[in-house]
Write a structure and sequence with these properties.
The chain has helices spanning 2-16, 20-25, 31-41, 49-53, 58-66, 70-106. By secondary structure, it is mainly α.
C-alpha cells in the first residue's frame, strides 16, 4: 500500500513539471529512473530545478497583472501614439515637399 501511494505522489509531482517528459522522450531518463531518484532524494532535490524553471508560474503572472497600473499604462500608450502621430506628420510633410520639388523640376 505504501509503494502505491509513493507512485501516486510521484505521478502528481511529475504533473507539476511537465517538461520532464521531454527527457524521457529523448531517452535521457526512463520513468523508472526518475521514480527511483524521486524516492531516494525527494521532490526538493536540485535535480528537478531546471524542469521547474521551464514551467509557467501562473500565480506569479497573476501577481504582475494585478500590480499593473492600467491608467499609467493607458497614458503611456497615449504618449507613444502622440509621438507616432508627430513623426508621421514630419514624414508626410517631407514626402510632400519632395514631391513638390520633383514636380517643379518636371515642369
Amino acid at each position: 500500500m505504501g509503494e502505491n501511494m509513493e507512485i501516486e505522489n510521484f505521478k502528481a509531482f511529475v504533473r507539476t513539471i511537465p517538461s520532464i517528459k521531454e527527457e524521457v522522450v529523448k531517452g535521457r531518463y526512463t520513468w523508472q529512473q526518475l521514480y527511483e531518484f524521486y524516492v531516494l532524494y525527494g521532490e526538493d532535490d536540485k535535480m528537478w530545478e531546471p524542469y521547474r524553471k521551464n514551467t509557467v508560474d501562473l500565480s506569479g503572472i497573476l501577481d504582475i497583472v494585478k500590480n499593473v497600473d492600467l491608467d499609467a499604462l493607458s497614458r503611456s500608450f497615449e504618449g507613444i501614439q502622440k509621438i507616432l502621430d508627430l513623426m508621421s506628420g514630419f514624414v508626410g510633410k517631407e514626402q510632400s515637399s519632395q514631391q513638390q520639388q520633383k514636380q517643379w523640376y518636371d515642369d
